[in-house]
Fold these 3 entries.
Entry 1:
Amino acid sequence: MDLLRFITCGSVDDGKSTLIGRLLYDSDSVSLDVLAAIENRPAVHGAIDLALLTDGLRAEREQGITIDVAHKYFTTPRRKFIITDAPGHVQYTRNMVTGASNADLAIVLVDARLGVIEQTRRHTLVAALLGIRQFVLAVNKMDLVGNDEAVFDAIVAEYTTVTRQLDVADVVAIPLSALHGDNVVRRSHKLAWYAGPSLLEHLEQIDVTEDVSADEPRFQVQYVIRPQQVDLPDYRGYAGRIQSGVYRKGDKVRVLPSGLETEIEALEVGQQEVDTAVAPQGVIIRLRDNVDVSRGDSIIVASSKPHVTRAFEATLCWMDERTLEPGQKFLLQHHTALVKASVSALLSKTNVETLLRSAAESAHLNDIVRVRIKTAVPLVADAYQKNRATGAFILLDEQTGATLAAGMIDATE
Amino acid sequence: MSSIPSLDYLDRLEAEAIHILREVAGQFERPSLLFSGGKDSIVLVHLAKKAFRPGRFPFPLVHIDTGHNFPEVLEFRDQLAAELGEKLIVRSVEATIKKQKLRDGTGKFPSRNPLQTYTLLEVIEEFAFDACIGGARRDEEKARAKERIFSIRDEFGQWDPKRQRPELWNIYNGRIQRGENVRVFPISNWTELDVWRYIQRESIALPNIYFGHSRTCVVLPSGQLLGLSEHLTLDDDDEIVERQVRFRTVGDSTCTAAVESDAVTIDDIIADLLLAKVSERGATRLDDNISEAGMEDRKRNGYF
């Protein structure tokens, strides 16, 4: 059985929470007591309000909107699903960025009566920017447009112009009604002109296997294990997660940023020595030679030659109330490496509705900007669109530790 | 050349949890692992072995003893700690009640669940813990579904759902200011079914109260069954029955109901679960039903 993580994006009244509620409800993933709790609430249109299955905070129930990212889980015989439900409103773009950062697929919801609107563009842009490659266009509320095929076709055509602009190739469009359950879990005769799979059928069928052997090998040290016990006096293991690619016992490796070369003497997974390990496994690497390695350093297979740099261009999603201006200093967390950094220049800002870029002198909450970054210590920097693991970083406030921005490396200098 | 391992969903959940545990070790000075003796914290201990052996755990196990624990669970706890050779810190709610002059749980089923928060905050202060690892899962409850994996608490232990840091990718930001601490939930993305399937795959030992056994129970007005213990005050007309039961969660014995079950093996339990239509907390917790925001309120006040 495998695992699929997906995000649902939609505007305030697209029925996103209802869709998730419907997926859980119709796949028998909602338990009786949870149903009883929501059935105690006033009904909408005589049906139980499935949106109540996802809105977890009191303020969300009071206002009837989703504020924060929520996680929901369900399992079918084929697959475990992790749903990230992110709010759709523009003031919560940072929450959507957060949700998309951990998803492999995006369901973009539109209201069949409204079609593609500005928010649809923004959601698709953010999901594509965060490296999601598989999209589902869920055209909801088909019942309110008489289940009309022509309406659906027009929306699909319009959406295609958006995805083309963003170089998103893999889009499957599905007409549905979350409120009535049409084409969500089961196909509906009301939409008989549609020959494709229901939403759940599609989510169960799509290929999630990735060929990790094609990826550049990357590993970063999280923690050094030194038992210093009588029976293991010299044991020194570098614990971390393989970020991408494959590692093998005997591989020639280079420690970065120091550049020292050695060889993998042993590879351990869960207290056992193995010959091969792959992303995203947690491993312990033991090295042939006693070289200086600490948390934040990378151990890279010597045949792979990543950029090790103190300056690069990146796209930031700015997530804080204060204004970003050139010259400001931060802490940059690149997984286990924590270094001082500055934003040396703002290059451009992306208009999330028109998808066009323009010059920028500052950035505000929810802005998406291209910047130049300098770091105090060199980083192993891959472009995000090539490597979602090592191309990502966050910026922190040095004093409070607050997370200020999500960053994606665009190009190294 | 050796073949490339293919990973299933349990391998991926395991890798995620090990990564989180090692981030705690790498980022904090004085972490701890909150150990209840329940299956989720036992799974955490198993994951910690995978993350840190052959080294020692970089944190002690901390148990908040309510004084209402199942004796089987305490026995299991001591045995596990001895086998591991790791440090176990036990602090009792009883002592906190005396020291802070708190009112003990009263009534027919006196719950000490809310009182645990006081002891937890005391032990955090006593050892200056900057991170506490817990076994909470997001599928348990609606408020938990919105909590981060690294969840920052102020010096009063309070969770503020509106001021949570965005948690991007698998980059965990544990940088905090003096007085703050972080609760860390490595198995946030696991469901009850995932936990059981993992216990099955890894052959992890559990306290025997998780498996079907005969027990003397009180029948509650709701129909739920509560194991008979010295902490309950019975009325003359209470219905006392002998039933084949097991526990789905292991909390305070005064507020953790048993479910009727013949499941004696892990396979039986998984089969039971696939059929079960009542969620874990709903089936067995007497304290979450109080209000729709029960858990959100308790977390805001420093609860696990």
Entry 2:
Amino acid sequence: MPVVQVEDVHKRFGAVEVLKGIDLTVERGEVIAIIGRSGSGKSTLLRCINGLEQIQSGRIEVSGHVIDASGKGLRDLRKDVGIVFQSYNLFPHLRVGENIMLAPRVVLGVSKAEALSRARETLAEVGLAERFDAWPDNLSGGQQQRVAIARSLAMRPKVMLFDEVTSALDPELTGEVLATMERLAEHGMTMLLVTHEMAFARRVATTTVFMHQGRVWEMGPSERIFGSPQTPELRQFLGSGLK
Amino acid sequence: MIRQFTESEFLFILASARWTLLLTVMAMLLGGLLGFLVALARTSHLAPLRVLAAGWIGLIQGVPVLMLLFLSYYGLSLAGFDLPPLIAATVSMALYASGYLGEIWRGSIQAVPWQQWEASSALAFSRPQQYRYIILPQAVRIAIPPTVGFLVQLVKNTSIVSIIGVVELARAGNLVNNATFQPFKVFGTVAAIYFIICWPISLLARRLEGRLHARRAG
Amino acid sequence: MGFQFQFQPVLARTDVLLDGLWLTLQLSGIGILFGALLGILLAMLRGLAGRPVRLLVDSYVEVVRNTPFLVQLLIIFFGVPTLGIRLSAEQAALSAIVLNLGAYATEIVRAGIESVHKSQIEAGLSLAMTRWQVFRHVVLAPALARVWPALSSQFVLMMLSTSVCSFISVQELSAQAANIESDTFRSFEVYILVTLIYLALAILLRLLLAGLGAVLFPTGSGLGRLRGQTGR
């Protein structure tokens, strides 16, 4: 059974239709990269899968939870879907460890000891075990983003969404975040990522989706998408984007 | 004998608002003058002046307006002046305003980017010229919204001078309430008049602030 | 000038001043505590409830902020008993203090809540928190931390304003000053002394609130950049 199933999803902002009937399936353990120009709807699609944006029609199913236009059952779905944002969005009033422990404690209701062990475990996973007591603002952007990843992982999600997570980072800091994500992929995490890092997508993603004008324009194994693009739009995108 | 709250009582209260307004205007003018000097002293390059002004602001903002009123009232009479209460009231309100306006305007002067000082120094402006032509014109724009906002505080605080016998709004309400004993009607009327004076000023202050922020952002 | 300061007659009445000081402290302490709680509660309610509630809260805030504390005090002191509710002067004073501070605190906390960026709320929601959980754990603490200085100033102002309660013969510090004044006729000395006591109270309260802020919101350098952490 697929972890994520997107069927004919339409999304409008006012009069502008941003998603014009998206179909997408993500199997367990798959890593899917979504590429495309800004405005192609790729970030919106990711936000819809987490229910941060409401869809007008169509259906999204994530590990058994269904989102439709009614927007019910969101919280159960979000327990299984982690999302990491471009702007990290750590909670500035909580220390790193507390940032991670908060949601397991109040949402899942796990014991403090359990939350603590999850926080230590996930921090170690992103290579920041020693920063447990740091304040978010005292971390570099790359470290903050890795904490944000750990915060999502502590909820033990079935799938992780990454929304241009390196776009706000200085070039020398993107490497550590990408390495963290690559390690997650190797450990079998199901991942869906919107990214501008073409080399990373090509190397790590099993499947790459090219979105254009609110549609899935072309998709397939990453090697083929990057190696022999079929449509002129993708060829042009790769030509201009891959300098 | 208990009287009714009739039109004449209402008009009595309404007419007393002129003293509230007069007191506010006088306190604003006098307090503004003094507050301006405080703000200049507070941003002076002479350390003793800065300390003095900071002390004045700390003092005024650290004591009740009621105490300023009593000190003015008894202090003036001790100094040998036999003056009507309205003068003591004006003096106390002006002292009060000077402490708050001084601080508001200090902030406005310091909100002007320091490069403006540097740039004007480089053009050989003297210190007074810098204030006159470069700094104050910019500070005024920043100062207007909070100054208008403070006006509301001033109007409201004039109510306490009723205790030394100035028959402004609050005192008029008290007199009428003693005669009619209809506290909700009487003080409701008094409150409504204050509100009618203060609310438009509050709204104006908020709008000016919004406009200032919009201009700064853009 | 023939006037000579004579503080002895005033200092002989220190016990009376201490009584007044104690009542001022009680009025201020209890008033600030409940006023702040009321403000937080209403700001929360305003954020979570629908339009009618918001309108109601806003009206309360505007009415209180645009009328004098003295008039509010008089309405409660003279008005409430005509409804058949017995109310001592101290109770009237305390009610007026809480209602007055509550309105200012509502406005301040509301501004703090609105300064928390939308992306913070989204981060909370995406972790499957309910709206209430997001509000409680993600929004409220940074909001309060941000507006703590403004709240503190308002608390100090309120403490100073308790002096107005002497108008309805609540025997707090300034009322006791008036008592001593009418006994000793050393008006200027009494009020200088009491003014200095208020000044000391204000300074102490500011220090106390600053310390409390450091304990309650120990966020390192974090909150200054709350607004900055938004991405583009």
Entry 3:
Amino acid sequence: MAAFTLQINGKEYKTDVAADTPLLWVLRDHLGLVGTKYGCGIAQCGACTVHIDGNPVRSCTLPVSAIKSAKVTTIEGLSKNGDHPVQLAWDEVDVPQCGYCQAGQIMTAAALLKRNPKPTQQQIEDAMHGNLCRCGAYHRIREAIQSASKKL
Amino acid sequence: MSTLNKTSRRDFIKITSLTSGGLVLGFSWFGTEAAPVILNKASLAGDVNFNSYLSIATDGTITVFSPNPELGQNVMTSFPMIVAEELDADWSKVKAVQAPLDKKFDRQLTGGSGAIPHSWKRLRTAGATARYLLIAAAAKKWNVDPGECTTANSFVLHSKTGNKLSYGELAEEASKITVPADVPLKNRKDFKIIGSSVKNVENKNIATGKGMFGLDFYREGMVYAMIQRPTAFGTKIKSVDDAAAKAMPGIIDVITFKNNVAVVGKSTWEVMKARKVLKVEYEKDGNIESTAGHNQLFISMLNSDKPTERRKDGDVETAFKSAAKVITSEYQCPFLPHSPMEPMNFFADVRADEVELIGATQTPGSARTAVSKLLNIPEEKISVTITRLGGGFGRRLKFDFVTEAAELSSILKKPVKLIWSKEDDMTGGSYRPAVRYRFEAALDASGNLIGYKLRGAGINVGNSTRENNFPSGAVDNLLIETVDHQSPITTGAWRAPVTNFLAFAEQSFIDEVAMAAGKDPVQFRLDLLQKARTTPVGAINYNIDRMETVIKTAAEKSGWGTKKGVSQGFSVYFSHQSYVAQVGEVVMKDGKPVLKKVYAVSDCGEVINKSGALQQVMGAIVDGYGHAMYGKLSFKDGAPEQTNFHNYRMIRMKEIPEVEAYFIDNGIDPTGLGEPALPPTGGAVANAIFKATGIRLKQQPFIDEKLFNPA
């Protein structure tokens, strides 16, 4: 076990866990931030996507010891009032079906729009390739990203 | 009113909190005719007959209890829409609450695309009754004829006097009025909410990461558990060496029960790590099967002399003997895991006096019954709280993960959160069964279908056919048979059970026969329907007119037979009481076919929520196409060869076709839509690929076929 101090969603969190514990399980089991989802555990589905210094990262394979002072943003901290343009677009386009993968989809989409506010359809599809949606809500995920992009 | 169940203390508390003010209508799910009753503190003191509630609080908030588990079929939104329509409610003041498991609810499960058809009239009656009571309360207050009052947007209005009162203001008074025996329902031409596009009521919670799924549930003092199950079907535990696992940090215990070795610890990660150092040896306990062996087995099953006859019309033997042409074809599909994004999990707290079960299940009632039997604890002492489900697709109709959690909690005497890893999910069984079909068709000299045979060979599927579905009824001489193999590999319902693959095989074969008959595939299907209409044979469980309408509409919307530059394929299927016709459009790119677009025309009767209905259709097409194209779970020595998303391919965003969806507006009472748009997709795609390439795809997944893997 080792003590870690993490910067998450603008707040400081302290946790005492094994150094190899993936950030996903620190968030979920130790810090009560359960918006970040466990899907596959091997970085293939994207349900666990968070931002590390603004970049989309799979938290299920990222050891807590690797984070150091980097800024972590989870779905809970993407916006103060749930009003990030991507979150608003998700409602406007009525994206979610079961909803389980959507936090990861939103985090990947938000990171994309931050570095490329006007992506082409091809660029959206490339960026979202790592996020699975078993309900097959891909049409509306893509449409919501395009909608959010127009408002940026 | 008859007495059904004594209200438990738990119910009483819940309802009294609802009745702190306003109108609470209890309505029955048992019969469509049963009238709602007003619930008040006095009536709650005794026995009550209700099993869902509609409450209107004095602040105008309208609450509908939704009994069915929500897994993405959007019932949490469509149920209150139906109530709000008849109630003329202000939609922004309506909310749905997931009801816990309660014996009073009839059919409290999610499966078979059945929630909406089951509840349609009950929900409308509840809304209409509440509206009647609110009008009566207002009319009494104003001393006017109730017939002169109207309602809109959660207000009762009296235009002659200009009087206006909100539902919240009237709720208390309405609760004192006698409930009428029956109330008229709206004419559908007056629908404002039903048939409109209403957004999922949970969108904001989902988009902000609220902990609403089973896996998100946490209770102070609970322990985490994962189970090592046999890696191969047909094996049992021979020996367990758990010393190293027990010595790992954070591990509380390792418990071997039945064929399970459970690692219990203080956190998920610590349990996952300890599991890796478990040493479990297994030994043979049944057949050890492989996909290669199944492939051989299917051939002998299709030639079996002991099939089960499912349907026989006319004289098949003579028809085939006299045929001018006979077409024979075989189609095969592999096992599939369900792959919901949220792996199986459940919380159980087994205490001396009561049991609490919390999590994501499609069948809370069956889960409770199973836990009751397992632990020998009466059902009355077991509560089930239903969380949102991160997908189900049929996997959560089984409740093995619930009984495992309960058994562990019972052994440990602690609250337990049982978690399956994604690998556990994929390798843990309950799959869509593998099936191989043989179709035979006899054509006369004019190209008429005079004989039809289907034999299904399946592994743990039972009846792998739908013997009264199309084309049954349209062929004079017909024989449908099945042969089933009992395997240790466990199977279960998978979105659109049986039809998820049968439809592809049948609709591909119908195209083969149409081609042999020299007829256009759409016209060939229409001719068969006309034959079923004019000279029907035996039982027909589909409506000929409705099927004909979706076929004609899909042909028209897709410009069937008139398009240049794309190859079209047709498919139509009836399942879960709904009709869906689809046209797939394929183009060639770098020598390979690419699916560009799917047209879908659905007849599910009245569409409740246009946005939700579109979601179901688009998602089902992506699902049907994705699994036909990529889905494969194969076995070697009894063990699945695919274990997680790195070697089990799922469709991704850049692989989806464009979808153009239409609905038949016929005002028929609504039928299911969670499943019916999936079965036709594989056939529409394969028929389009044939048109583009001349190659007939007969095995799923398509991606394994030579067409996609040129040498």
